[in-house]
Design a protein that fits this description.
The structure holds two protein chains of two kinds. Chain A is built from six helices and nine strands, in the order E-H-E-E-E-H-E-H-E-H-E-H-E-E-H. By secondary structure, chain A is an alpha/beta fold. Chain A has one domain: Rossmann fold (3-Layer(aba) Sandwich), CATH 3.40.50. In chain A, about 55% of the residues are buried. In chain B, the strands form six sheets. An eight-stranded mixed beta sheet of chain B has the order 3-19-22-18-17-14-15-16, with helices on both faces. In chain B, helix 19 crosses helix 23. The two termini of chain B are about 40 Å apart. The chains are: A alpha/beta, B alpha/beta. Chains A and B meet through helix 3, strand 6, helix 4 and helix 5 of A and strand 3, helix 13 and helix 26 of B. Bound molecules: iron/sulfur cluster (3 copies). The site of one iron/sulfur cluster (SF4) has 16 residues of chain B, from helix 13 and helix 14.
Chain lengths: ~180, ~775
């Protein structure tokens, strides 16, 4: 699996994401976080793996891990249709700006998230928001759950096939199902 | 206007002393002030004059920066790594650097429109004289130049007056750009304020360009019935010699059209255009045709439709000459800003140039005399068309299959494609004989050619996609309303009240380029949705073309389905890029004509009025250029929110309000001086939306203004709630922030909204006479 930025012109930054070589590593980091947050973008209904949409993998993962979800674009409606209630929904830029603000107290008003995960935004938008966080919230830990390497995150999965992606998400879900939170 | 030069120009005069040639004299300035409106506080503002106003907006809508690059390499002190708070060798940090990039983009955009205006005005003055009167809409348009009046305090009456306006803009844009020099401005908000200033200059520059050409070239003058123009390759008679004009500046095209008509060839030829030149051609000659937005240059040239390609300025592919050469279409470069490396043949005899082009001795020429461009283009097209027989470089379907087999599935094309199109998979299918996946890419491909540059096998991927979509391409035959120009004073009088009171739910301006995430249909859908809801929908530029490129169930285009007036449910195309100024102009005229606020040099007050009262939103769904950035900056500075589609996030800086911070939403009540919380209305000044569904919900919300009457607010909320429910599947979670009194609640939605208000501990508030400017507070009457 390659750690080149997926979009060729997204030249790697001076500070590059650590690759997540195994889904178990991501699980360990999420478990270590006390206030994780998952931001889900509009590709959640555009990506299909093994006959199932990304959003359905995310719902399985979110149910198992209990990580609160912020839906961007019109994804809230897609989550609701599937019987899953996201913790919040807003534009990708709105949530990005809130995360950058150190005084923001999170979706529930109880504290700033210590790990912010992204999945399913258009690649270039996600890259830009991650860059904004890297520069303006340097202590903020960020992670991507996509199958495309994102250099601006703290941790990113390397570029991977759809099959590998599906497997990563399934393993992550199962690890939470096995061991609880 | 206020000041006038006495200007004497003598081409040739015999005197006792001898022969005088080319004498020009400008003597002092004579004040001839027949404009009685008193001068406001800020005529011809400098870069810091409106800084306080800009800071008010920037404090309410804070920049959210997303640097595209960690480094700065703008001077040889660098490169400097600015990651996460590090400062460069000059002391600059990444926030300031990010806003500096915004300023540079806006300055480039403003310079481009203003230089365009300068060329147009100088040319027209030479042709028609300085005293040629401006006429934007006859008796229906008394406020001929609202932006210019507002910003400069000048009321231009003649072409010559525009010269002075431009001189002012040119100086200001130079100041704006100079602030980006190393060791000049260092604070991010000050960079932002200067970007706003560039936006103000941009609006003036655009207005000058458009009113000059409307007045002299007899374009439609504030005409809601501007002609419907055929659009798309399907509308072009491909048996006729075809001249394709690409760019933004109509002057060379006028040369072409005039020569063609004078030679009585107008029935025997086609003049087609891409991008804004296309619009302005149709404003001059309603039988000119539009083939499409700017991003489609590659496909039209490769498909061989053009016998001669004439390029003027802005957004022209810089490799158009290589592409045209492949299909043996000569190129005429007609702008000194875009010489393309061609030899300047302006002073050569036309027939000699024609011979050189037709014989292929030279692939292209530079001609800076528009009349000569006309003669050469027409004669060359007539002679070369039978020889070319519409050569094209598109492969046959059989060849597509063979070429597809050479693909190594390395993915580099997809990884270089801004749309992340699944090219390798489509080629695999094509190699196996199934062309459908390749055809499916046609609508989403924006024709950038980046995939081909990346391909190690040198596969002409874009050509394969165009071939696969050829049926669609050939059947494109739609209607677009020609640019109508300004909104008339009469129209403003009849809708000003309903807009400000909120009874017309909003004005949606769909503008900008064609860098769409998934094709142009989204633009059509959004326009149609809001026109059906009786918003006023204004279009311009490439977006206006996309809006006209689809048909409803009855086979009607948007411009046939909805009226072309500035009215509830109207869909009006103002025209080319420079006609965007009429959109800001309409907003300004509402403040002036309906609310009777003085315009003259009175920027802050008018912007404050527009920001708090006029439910207008700009949507640049496919914005890409620096000009789009400066156009947006002109709207930000007026306090008008702008949305961009996903690719617009690459402008790298948003201006976002925080609905969760009530302290950000306080205004003064001008009646009492009291501070009133109005809620997040409008919530943002510059925002990216990811999907058309999200765009629709945001548009409805961003039309809400503090000043709405109960009835107006109830109407706006019902659209917001309705769209929210349809696209998000639930009630808006922030509805309590927009209900001021129970009278604001749409009657049919009372049962749903009242429980939410209770849950949120909602409290009633007043409807203020809203202002951000303490000086607008009237003394309290006892
Ligand atoms: S302008 Fe400043 S930050 Fe940029 S390269 Fe020069 S010294 Fe470095
Ligand atoms: S870059 Fe060329 S060889 Fe590689 S997958 Fe794309 S078309 Fe095939
Ligand atoms: S030309 Fe089309 S397919 Fe190729 S990179 Fe550009 S958008 Fe993608």
């Amino acid at each position: 699996m390659s750690c080149e930025p997926w979009q060729c012109a997204e030249i790697a930054a001076t500070k590059k994401a650590n690759p997540i070589q195994k889904p178990e590593i991501a699980v360990a980091m999420i478990k270590k976080a006390s206030r994780p947050l998952l931001i889900v973008g509009s590709n959640a209904t555009q990506r299909w793996m093994e006959g199932k949409q990304l959003i359905d993998y995310i719902i399985d993962f979110a149910n198992a891990s209990k990580v609160p979800v912020v839906a961007t674009a019109h994804m809230v409606g897609e989550f609701l249709k599937r019987g899953y209630q996201p913790a919040a929904f807003m534009t990708a830029m709105d949530i990005g700006q809130r995360v950058v603000d150190p005084t923001w107290q999170g979706i529930d008003g109880k504290g700033h998230p210590d790990l912010v995960m992204f999945v399913g935004l258009p690649y270039y938008m996600e890259a830009l928001i991650l860059s904004g966080l890297k520069h303006f919230a340097p202590d903020q830990k960020t992670m991507t759950l996509d199958n495309l390497y994102h250099p601006h995150a703290s941790w990113s999965f390397p570029n991977a096939t759809l099959e590998e992606w599906a497997n990563n998400l399934k393993v992550m879900t199962s690890k939470f199902n096995e061991g609880g939170q | 206007m206020t000041t006038k030069n006495v200007h004497v120009k003598i081409d040739e005069m015999k005197t006792n002393a001898g022969l005088i040639k080319n004498l020009e004299l400008s003597i002092g300035k004579v004040i001839s002030d027949n404009w009685t409106e008193p001068m406001g506080p800020t005529p011809m503002p400098h870069i810091s004059t409106l800084r306080d106003w800009d800071m008010k907006l920037l404090n309410k809508y804070k920049p959210f920066y997303m640097p595209d690059c960690d480094l700065c390499c703008l001077c040889t002190y660098g490169k400097c790594d600015l990651t996460a708070g590090k400062r460069g060798a000059c002391g600059l940090d990444i926030g300031a650097q990010s806003s500096r990039i915004v300023l540079i983009a806006c300055s480039i955009g403003a310079a481009t429109h203003t230089a365009h205006a300068r060329h147009v005005v100088d040319h027209l003055i030479e042709k028609y004289g300085r005293r040629f009167p401006l006429d934007v809409g006859g008796l229906n348009v008394k406020v001929e130049a609202p932006v210019t009046r507002l910003v400069t305090g000048i009321k231009p009456e003649t072409l010559g007056d525009l010269d002075e306006v431009l001189t002012y803009c040119e100086a200001q844009i130079t100041h704006c750009l100079s602030a980006a020099h190393t060791g000049q401005e260092g604070n991010n908000l000050d960079f932002e304020s200067k970007a706003f200033h560039a936006g103000r200059m941009d609006q003036v520059g655009m207005e000058v360009a458009d009113i000059a050409q409307i007045s002299t070239l007899n374009f439609p003058k504030a005409d809601p019935e501007a002609p419907l123009i055929r659009m798309g390759i399907g509308s072009v008679d491909r048996t006729k010699p075809t001249i394709m004009c690409i760019g933004h500046n109509v002057v060379p095209s006028v040369g072409i059209i005039d020569y063609m008509k004078d030679s009585r060839l107008d029935d025997k030829m086609e003049v087609v255009g891409l991008c804004c030149t296309a619009f302005d051609n149709t404003r001059y000659y309603d039988r000119a045709k539009i083939v499409g937005p700017i991003s489609w240059q590659l496909k039209f040239v490769r498909a061989g439709f053009a016998d001669v390609v004439v390029i003027d300025e802005q957004c022209v592919r810089t490799d158009i000459f290589n592409e045209a050469e492949k299909v043996k279409a000569p190129v005429i470069a007609a702008s000194e800003k875009n010489c393309m490396g061609f030899k300047n043949r302006t002073n050569d005899p036309a027939d000699q140039i024609v011979d050189d082009l037709v014989s292929g001795r030279v692939p292209g020429v530079l001609i800076l005399d528009p009349d000569k461009v006309g003669e050469v283009a027409v004669k060359t097209a007539v002679k070369i068309a039978p020889i070319r027989r519409k050569l094209n470089v598109l492969p046959s379907l059989e060849q597509v299959k063979e070429i597809a087999k050479t693909c190594r599935h390395c993915n580099l094309c997809q990884r270089s494609c801004p749309q992340d199109l699944k090219i390798p998979a489509a080629l695999k299918a094509a190699a196996e004989g199934n062309i459908a996946p390749l055809t499916a890419l046609y609508e989403e491909c924006i024709g950038c050619g980046r995939c081909e540059e990346a391909c190690p096998q040198k596969i002409m991927i874009h050509s394969l996609i165009v071939k696969a979509g050829e049926k669609e391409l050939m059947s494109e035959d739609n209607l677009c309303r020609s640019g109508r120009g300004a909104v008339s004073d009469v129209e403003i009088r009849s809708v000003g009240g309903p807009i400000v009171l909120g009874e017309i739910p909003g004005i949606l301006a769909v503008v900008g380029c064609a860098n769409y995430p998934h094709g142009g249909k989204d633009v059509y859908d959004i326009c149609r949705e809001f026109a059906s809801r009786r918003y006023i929908v204004v279009t311009s530029g490439c977006s206006a073309m996309s809006a006209g490129s689809y048909r409803n169930e009855e086979g009607k285009t948007l411009y046939e389905e909805f009226p072309g007036g500035f009215e509830a449910g109207g869909v009006l195309n103002v025209g080319s890029c420079v006609a965007n100024s009429h959109i800001a102009g309409a907003a300004i005229k509402v403040a002036n004509i309906f609310a009777k606020r003085n315009l003259r040099g009175n920027y802050e007050e008018i912007a404050d009025y527009i920001h708090n009262r006029l439910g207008a939103v700009g949507l640049a769904w496919g914005a890409y250029s620096q000009k789009a950035a400066s156009i947006a900056a002109g709207f930000w500075s007026l306090g008008v929110p702008v949305l961009v589609g996903p690719h617009g996030s690459k402008y790298r800086r948003m201006l976002l309000g925080r609905s969760d911070k009530p302290e950000n939403w306080e205004v003064y009540d001008a009646r009492t001086g009291e501070i009133v919380n109005t809620g997040p209305a409008p919530e943002h000044l510059f925002q990216t939306v990811e999907t058309p569904q999200e765009a629709m919900v945001q548009i409805a919300k961003l039309c809400i203004r503090p000043n709405d009457t109960w009835k107006g607010r109830a109407g706006k909320l019902s659209h917001y709630i309705d769209l929210h429910k349809r696209h998000y599947g639930c009630m808006p979670p922030d509805i309590h922030m927009f209900v001021r009194t129970t009278a604001d609640i749409p009657i049919t939605m009372k049962d749903e909204i009242v429980p939410i208000l209770k849950e949120k501990n909602w409290k009633e508030s007043v409807i203020p006479d809203p202002t951000l400017l303490p000086r607008m507070i009237r003394k309290q009457k006892e």
